[in-house]
TrEMBL record:
It holds the Pfam family Glyco_transf_10. One of its GO terms (molecular function) is alpha-(1->3)-fucosyltransferase activity. Belongs to the glycosyltransferase 10 family. Keywords: Glycosyltransferase, Transferase. InterPro entries: Glyco_tran_10_C, Glyco_trans_10, GT10-like_C_sf. This is Glycosyl transferase. PANTHER family: ALPHA- 1,3 -FUCOSYLTRANSFERASE, ALPHA-(1,3)-FUCOSYLTRANSFERASE 10. Signal peptide: none annotated. Residues 166-268 form the Fucosyltransferase C-terminal domain. GO terms for cellular component: membrane.
Length: 320
């Protein structure tokens, strides 16, 4: 009988702070077990510790000149030992998953630099990471692993959907919003869902489960926030394929290296040319029918190979 190694987790994502069942839906077994590992994010004494998009404290701002003159300036110490739960450095994994957007690239670099003091393995989807690599797959459907693994294509009823957000804090986000405006000014039938979308957008609201905004559609727009290196690809593509959509994908070349040919379409650009492409593709479901076998193959790759749980299992095997 295999005795699973316990994987703990801490993250900078606030919604994961107290999640005891994180990733449990990505395995066919109960309680987060995948082959030789069990992911228990809050375990007190795990065998390995995953720092998942964990942001190390940034340097404190400069004190007033009078405080410095009087020797009152103090440097706050970061106590990582209280977070590490006794896990040795060689068994601490740092995975950064956010893209290196111009607005945050220096913060990403500082995180990598600080992680080297505490972590034995450090990776992220950018060239300046200690170990540049693709992000292992997570997805946001609440369906069970067995259901996703065994299901046939669901009934398709509508041409195309897009699930996105109204975030506008970076130039890339603002470019996406402008494309949304242009797309809605066209006559293309696309159902738009998401959080914080602009008042001018004709959207169908926030979804509690992305499945309902993808599974009934032949096509789905999967538009990354970043498309400028060879590493970055996100759950936007995995969610689309797992719902048996044919993604119309805008992103970098990473997806071509991870998925079989024909399992997604390439949106050429976020402009009039891209809109014309979407209009041509979504006019009929023909391309979806032609891609069904490739979509099926891609889904199995996502579920079994690219899955973050499988990545952690293989990491533990290499360590052992």
């Amino acid at each position: 009988m295999i005795k699973q190694k316990i994987i703990g987790m801490i993250s900078g994502y606030s919604n994961l702070a107290n999640r005891g069942d994180w990733l449990w839906q990505q395995t066919p077994h109960h309680f987060g077990i995948w082959e030789n590992i069990q992911i228990l994010p809050l375990a007190e004494k795990p065998d390995f510790l995953l720092l998942y998009q964990f942001d190390f404290p940034q340097p404190a701002p400069e004190k007033f000149w009078l405080d410095r003159l009087c020797g009152k300036q103090k440097t706050s110490e970061f106590n990582f030992e209280s977070l590490s739960r006794g896990v040795p450095k060689t068994r601490i994994i740092y995975l950064l998953r956010e893209p290196p957007l111009n607005e945050v690239v220096e913060i990403n670099k500082q995180n990598y630099q600080k992680a080297q003091n505490y972590c034995g393995y450090i990776s992220g989807p950018d060239d300046f990471a200690p170990h540049p690599d693709y992000m292992p797959a997570i997805w946001y459907h609440t369906n069970s692993f067995r259901e996703l693994n065994e299901m046939p294509p669901p009934e398709k009823l509508s041409p195309c959907s897009w699930i996105t957000s109204g975030i506008s804090r970076t130039a890339n986000h603002r470019q996406r919003l402008e494309f949304m405006r242009s797309l809605q000014n066209s006559d293309i039938k696309i159902d738009l869902y998401g959080r914080g979308l602009p008042e001018w957008s004709r959207n169908l609201g926030l979804l509690g489960n992305k499945w309902y905004g993808m599974a009934p559609y032949y096509y789905n727009l999967a538009i990354e926030n970043y498309a400028d290196n060879d590493w970055y690809v996100s759950e936007k593509l995995w969610d689309s394929l797992l719902a048996w959509c044919l993604p119309i994908y805008y992103g970098g070349p990473a997806a071509d290296k991870l998925l079989p040919p024909g399992s997604f379409l390439r949106l050429p650009s976020l402009d009039e040319k891209g809109i014309a492409y979407i209009q041509e593709v979504t006019a009929t479901p023909d391309l979806w029918y032609a891609a069904k076998d490739a979509i099926a193959e891609a889904r199995q790759i996502i579920l079994h190979k690219l899955n973050l749980l499988n990545w952690l299992s293989e990491f533990v095997n290499q360590y052992s």
